[in-house]
């Protein structure tokens, strides 16, 4: 990704309902997000306004994938 790319996006929405361990959040623009219930603050309930912040971060699987590819190329 280039330096000009956004490193963070904020999505705003409203908790529509809680279904077992899943929170259904309606986002601006008419989309819905299905989140683990424990990803929201404990005080969140139906009708709560939320902001979801998505940031770019390190890829925790990158090293494992590279190691697997290296082993495959070496014929292991």
Topology:
Layout: E1 8-19, E2 22-27, E3 32-36, E4 49-55, H1 62-73
Antiparallel strand pairs: 1-2, 1-4, 2-3
Task: Name the descriptors.
76 residues, SH3 type barrels, 4-stranded antiparallel β-sheet, 1 helix, 16% helix, elongated
**Strand neighbour order, sheet with most strands:** 3-2-1-4
Sequence stretches where pLDDT stays below 50 over 5 or more residues? none
Shape descriptor reads elongated
Secondary structure: helix percent: 10-25%
Distance from N terminus to C terminus (CA atoms, Å) equals 32 Å
- The sequence of SSEs as H and E is EEEEH
How many structurally independent domains?
Answer: 1
CATH class bucket: Mainly Beta
The fraction of residues in strands falls at 35-45%
Mean pLDDT: 89
- The tally of helices reads 1
Structure summary, number of beta strands: 4
Rg over CA atoms, rounded to whole Å, is: 18 Å
Q: Would you identify the CATH architecture?
A: Roll
What is the name of the CATH topology? SH3 type barrels
Largest sheet: 4 strands, antiparallel
Classify the secondary structure makeup into a structural class: alpha+beta
Summarize the structure in words.
The chain is of the alpha+beta class. The protein has a single domain, classed as SH3 type barrels, CATH 2.30.30. 16% of the residues lie in helices and 39% in strands. It has 1 helix and 4 strands; from the N terminus they run ββββα. It has one helix at 62-73; strands at residues 8-19, 22-27, 32-36, 49-55. It has a 4-stranded antiparallel β-sheet with strand order 3-2-1-4, with no helix packed on it. Strand 1 and strand 2 (22-27) form a beta hairpin. The longest helix has 12 residues, at 62-73.
């Amino acid at each position: 990704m280039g330096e000009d790319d956004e490193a963070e996006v904020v999505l705003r929405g409203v908790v529509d309902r809680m279904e077992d361990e899943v929170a259904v959040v309606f986002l601006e623009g008419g989309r819905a997000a299905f989140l683990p219930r424990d990803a929201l603050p404990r005080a969140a309930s139906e009708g709560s306004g939320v902001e979801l912040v998505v940031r770019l971060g390190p890829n925790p699987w990158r090293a494992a994938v590279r190691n697997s590819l290296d082993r495959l190329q070496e014929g292991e």
